[in-house]
């Protein structure tokens, strides 16, 4: 066993002279075992340890008191070439013929020490990184108790490190967010799912609550068990305010776009309103003439009044739709039947379709699920797509002008609406640019219509895209999710 051992095994007598050395000594110290027999043990020690060993060894022989631990002590050894290196030493003692013999097992721990040094260096680097990175970082035990946060967290919250540990960090959370955030964190810890939550945090610098988002991922062992959580906190208050400002700007831009569309439809709107008003005037004049001739029978008067009421209601409905379309109101999502919204828009654009001699085809799937959307915003999108289709067909022969509006349910459970025209189509080079702000193919266009439409649909959680129609024309499609509030 001694001959094949990986560790060096040495025996010394009461004078600290080497009596035995196994073959591993050669590999570890560079000495042939025969070179060491009869030599002092201090030959294998650097200069600064030799006196310490000699004094300590003499003291032990005299008193029985050890100056170092004899089991697993880490010391510095010396190779034959003068190189110092770390070793782990364990010694045992035997008495033979009234004399003490000491046997030591010496293990070269250079690689282990290098690995430990590297690990410590990595830990220092990681600590420096977490303390200097301009981000709030934290970690938690597997049970969810916070055990570390970097200086950024302390600077932001103004709390001492010991208070942040455990659940003390909750003190900085807005009272309206504490319960829900605690439930979300508890759920993540119990399931091991990633954690993310937006909350208001008290900033120490100005004692103001600001919107932040905290995220964390679990570190798992080879068996998939959560060992630790590592997370971050990001102040997104300024970003949220910018998003709200952007949203308000988009809403106002959408309203301007609706007003512009109404300007384009002014002639059609006037016609739609004038028709019932003319009928009201004609029925009223007829009643006056019959009354003057004393020939106004009660049944005739009843029918005339019914027509006047019906035409007045019709005119009022047109004006009501227009007022709702251009009114400045905040977006409000409600459950809507998409086919009803399509019919309302076709009524608004009906005169334009008729005067441009366009054949209108409806392919509306019945019994579609309700969509959660803002009625006016969906009307705006549909009207813009229809008006674009009408404009695209003005350059083609009247007999080939067809406009198809369809609705259907997709396999993913969204409602799909398509507006197809048989116009000149789009150049493939610009097909995808039509949704860019201020890009237009019209000489008098602003280039904002389709960009606004895409923003509206994406805000509803849907998608708007364009594709060519065979043999000519364009198809614009959009989806709106159902049943999930955005």
CATH class of the largest domain: Alpha Beta
- CATH level-four homologous superfamily name of the largest domain: Histidine kinase-like ATPase, C-terminal domain
Q: Which residues form runs of ≥5 with pLDDT under 50?
A: none
What form results from the Cα inertia axes? rod-shaped
Which architecture name of the largest domain does CATH use? 2-Layer Sandwich
Might you state the CATH topology name of the largest domain?
Heat Shock Protein 90
* Head-to-tail CA distance between termini: 75 Å
Order of helices and strands: EEHHHEEEHEEHHHEEEHHHEHEEHEEHEE
Figure out the total of helices: 13
Kindly give the count of domains.
Answer: 4
Structural write-up:
With 486 residues, this protein is α+β, with helices and mostly antiparallel strands. It has 4 domains: 8-110, Beta-Lactamase, CATH 3.30.450.20; 133-235, Beta-Lactamase (2-Layer Sandwich); 249-330, Helix Hairpins, CATH 1.10.287; 331-486, 2-Layer Sandwich (Heat Shock Protein 90), CATH 3.30.565. It is 43% helix and 25% strand. Strand 4 (84-96) and strand 5 (99-108) form a beta hairpin. Helix 9 runs antiparallel to helix 10 (298-326) and helix 12 (375-393) runs antiparallel to helix 13 (449-459). It is rod-shaped. The relative contact order is 0.05.
């Amino acid at each position: 066993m001694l001959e094949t051992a990986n560790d060096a095994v040495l025996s010394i007598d009461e004078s600290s002279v080497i009596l035995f050395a196994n073959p591993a000594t050669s590999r570890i110290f560079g000495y042939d075992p025969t070179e060491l027999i009869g030599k002092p043990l201090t030959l294998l020690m650097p200069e600064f340890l030799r006196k310490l060993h000699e004094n300590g060894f003499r003291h032990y022989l005299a008193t029985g008191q050890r100056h170092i631990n004899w089991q697993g002590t880490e010391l510095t050894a010396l190779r034959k070439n003068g190189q110092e290196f770390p070793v782990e030493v364990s010694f045992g003692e035997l008495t033979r013929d009234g004399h003490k013999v000491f046997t030591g097992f010496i293990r070269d721990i250079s690689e282990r020490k290098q690995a430990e040094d590297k690990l410590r260096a990595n830990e220092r680097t990681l600590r420096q990184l977490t303390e200097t990175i301009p981000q709030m970082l934290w970690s938690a035990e597997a049970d969810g108790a916070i055990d570390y946060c970097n200086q950024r967290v302390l600077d932001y919250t103004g709390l001492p490190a010991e208070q942040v540990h455990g659940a003390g960090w909750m003190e900085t959370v807005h009272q309206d967010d504490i319960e829900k955030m605690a439930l979300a964190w508890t759920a993540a810890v119990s399931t091991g799912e990633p954690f993310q939550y937006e909350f208001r945090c008290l900033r120490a610098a100005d004692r103001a609550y600001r919107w932040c988002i905290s995220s964390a991922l679990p570190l798992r062992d080879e068996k998939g068990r959560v060992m630790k959580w590592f997370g971050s906190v990001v102040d997104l208050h300024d970003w949220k305010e910018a998003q709200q400002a952007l949203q308000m700007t988009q809403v106002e831009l959408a309203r301007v776009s609706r007003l512009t569309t109404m300007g384009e439809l002014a002639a059609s709107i006037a016609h739609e309103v004038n028709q019932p008003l003319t009928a009201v005037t004609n029925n009223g004049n007829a009643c006056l003439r019959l009354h003057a001739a004393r020939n106004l029978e009660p049944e005739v008067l009843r029918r005339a009044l019914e027509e006047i009421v019906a035409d007045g209601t019709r005119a009022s409905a047109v004006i009501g739709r227009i007022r709702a379309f251009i009114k400045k109101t905040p977006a409000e999502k409600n459950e809507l039947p998409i086919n009803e919204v399509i019919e309302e828009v076709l009524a608004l654009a009906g005169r334009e379709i008729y005067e441009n001699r366009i054949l209108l085809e409806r392919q509306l799937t019945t019994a579609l699920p309700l969509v959660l959307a803002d009625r006016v915003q969906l009307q705006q999108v549909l009207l813009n797509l229809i008006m674009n289709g009408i404009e695209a067909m003005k350059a083609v022969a009247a007999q080939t002008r067809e406009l198809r509006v369809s609705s259907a349910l997709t396999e993913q459970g969204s409602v799909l609406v398509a507006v197809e025209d048989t116009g000149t189509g789009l150049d493939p080079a610009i097909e995808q640019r039509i949704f860019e702000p201020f890009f237009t193919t019209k000489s008098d266009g602003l280039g904002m219509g389709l960009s606004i439409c895409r923003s509206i649909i994406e805000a509803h959680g849907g998608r708007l895209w364009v594709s060519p129609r065979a043999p000519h024309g364009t198809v614009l499609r959009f989806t709106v999710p159902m049943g999930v509030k955005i």
